[in-house]
Amino acid sequence: MKSLLRTCGALAAPLLATVALSGASGSACAAVFAIDSSQSSVTYTPGGFALCDPFGNCGTLPDPQTFTLSGSFNVRQERVFITTSFFPLDGFERDQIQFDSIDIDSGGAAALGFTFPAYFAVLSGQDFAGNEDACTWFPSSGSCFSMGPFGAYAGRTDGGTLSMTGTDYAGSFFPSTFSFTVVAQAVAPASVPEPGTLACLAAAALGIGLARRARAGSSLHRPQPV
């Protein structure tokens, strides 16, 4: 225990300085983004087709509706290892982003079936793209059968600004389509360290507290000069 405290105590200062900037390999970094409602919207286009009676009189589909998007969401970035065969060491590392803690007001589009994307996107530099078809992103899954349409989105982020466009669908046989545009700004970047890092920091804090208490106790019992 003492050796762990000494080790973590020595590492505590640099860890505390760097943990707010980035995580170790395999850790996840997160930032909160606030949506710019003046540039963000979702357009609903009803699915299906117009029905006609025997006399050739056809109805019409409802007009598309556009709603303003507002609110916020987290963007989590992590590096994962993707296996490409049955051998666990065959594969490559991939950078991904994913949205969570989604708190968005779609102005009525949600009642029509719109869902903000919570599936991951592959990150390449500042560009990212993702879709709901698992067959696209997991080459080691073997035989894969997929049916569309699938939601998808793509965009770009420099860490401070995120912009993207995408599609979402609602319904089964004749799905309605949602086309959305999002522009958002980072407001509270943060870092999520490894569990081992958290344990080390906790142990270091405990060790520092015990050391201070020991020094205070020894000074009380130290003989005072006459």
Explain what the structure shows.
With 226 residues, the chain is α+β, with helices and mostly antiparallel strands. The chain has one domain. The chain has three helices and ten strands, in the order H-E-E-E-E-E-E-E-H-E-E-E-H. The chain has helices at residues 2-18, 134-137, 195-221, and strands at residues 28-35, 41-45, 65-68, 70-83, 91-105, 121-124, 127-131, 152-157, 161-170, 176-192. It has an eight-stranded antiparallel barrel with strand order 1-4-5-6-7-8-9-10. Strand 6 (121-124) and strand 7 form a beta hairpin. Helix 1 packs across helix 3. The radius of gyration is 26 Å and the shape is flat. Mean pLDDT is 75; it is low at 1-25 and 194-205.
Describe the structure using short key phrases.
226 residues; alpha+beta; eight-stranded antiparallel β-barrel; 3 helices; 10 strands
Mean pLDDT, to the nearest integer, reads: 75
The helical percent reads 10-25%
**How is the biggest beta sheet arranged?**
8 strands, antiparallel, barrel
Q: What's the number of structural domains?
A: 1
Strand order of the largest sheet: 1-4-5-6-7-8-9-10
Strand content: 35-45%
SSE series: HEEEEEEEHEEEH
So how many helices?
A: 3
Spans of at least 5 consecutive residues whose pLDDT stays below 50 are: 1-25, 194-205
Query: What coarse outline follows from CA principal-axis ratios?
Result: flat
